[in-house]
UniProtKB/TrEMBL annotation:
It comes from Citrus sinensis (Sweet orange). It holds the Pfam family Glyco_hydro_38N. GO terms for biological process: mannose metabolic process. PANTHER family: ALPHA-MANNOSIDASE. Residues 1-166 form the Glycoside hydrolase family 38 N-terminal domain. Keywords: Glycosidase, Hydrolase. InterPro entries: Glyco_hydro/deAcase_b/a-brl (IPR011330), Glyco_hydro_38_cen_sf (IPR037094), Glyco_hydro_38_N (IPR000602), Glyco_hydro_38_N_sf (IPR027291), Glyco_hydro_57/38_cen_sf (IPR028995), Glycosyl_Hydrlase_38 (IPR050843). This is Glycoside hydrolase family 38 N-terminal domain-containing protein. GO terms for molecular function: alpha-mannosidase activity.
């Protein structure tokens, strides 16, 4: 495929919950029956989303307590924050195979003030490594993948697709993935005919109609008046 690995966050919430219990968030994904093993790739699904654990966001106005390492100030908290870091790391390690985990620092709209992020990450890496219970470092997906490969772990095999995707009950992202383009194109085309047909037949319907249909991450919610002139 030209890649060594693939990492992403969005899978069905029920699938994620099951994988967390079974430590199957990282798999070998063989997505094509016809291509077989030639198409497979090491794939990792993030355990929560593409953001850091709770308590470790450092954007403007975030509520996560920063490390205060000046012993002359009343709110010195290095030991407390190191304990928080270690606890969060061990919690993720409990749902991840091997002793390597990945944290995503930053998320949507959360890198507007990079200086505060890197200042805190520098401090966490320094004090966590000084504590010695876990080892923290700046890394990349490539470095992480190499560490996983070096562990000689036998990874579960995932076949077929991760579609459909819902992030909570009855909330399906019907157009999120680019898989099954022919089917999705057909659904989109037929939806257009369906909506057009409603406009044509609406004058003959007594009750008002409201339609909400989500296609390709776009919500179309036309509300028609109670009467239309043909």
């Amino acid at each position: 495929l030209g890649f060594d690995s693939l990492y992403f966050a969005r899978i069905d919430y029920q699938d994620r919950a099951k994988r967390l219990k079974e430590k199957n968030l990282e798999v070998v994904w063989r997505g094509s029956k016809s291509l077989g093993s030639s198409s497979q790739i090491f794939t990792g699904i993030f355990p929560r989303h593409y953001d850091p654990p709770d308590g470790f966001t450092f954007e403007i106005n975030d509520v996560s307590p920063p490390i205060q390492d000046d012993v002359l100030l009343f709110d010195y908290n290095v030991e407390e924050r190191v304990n928080d870091f270690v606890a969060a790391a061990l919690a993720q390690a409990n749902v991840t195979r091997t002793n390597h985990i990945m944290w995503l620092m930053g998320t949507d709209f959360r890198y507007q003030y990079a200086n505060s992020w890197f200042r805190q990450m520098d401090k966490f890496i320094h004090y966590v490594n000084k504590d010695g219970r876990v080892n923290a470092l700046y890394s990349t997906p490539s470095i992480y993948t190499d560490a996983k490969n070096a562990a000689n772990e036998e990874w579960p095999l995932k076949t077929e697709d991760f579609f459909p995707y819902a992030d909570h009950p009855n909330a399906y992202w019907t157009g999120y993935f680019t898989s099954r383009p022919a089917l999705k194109g057909y659904v989109r085309m037929m939806s257009g005919y369906y909506l057009s047909g409603l406009v044509v037949i609406y004058p003959y319907i007594d009750a008002p109609v409201k339609i909400s249909h989500r296609i390709e991450n776009t919500t179309l919610s036309p509300s028609y008046p109670e009467s239309l002139s043909p």
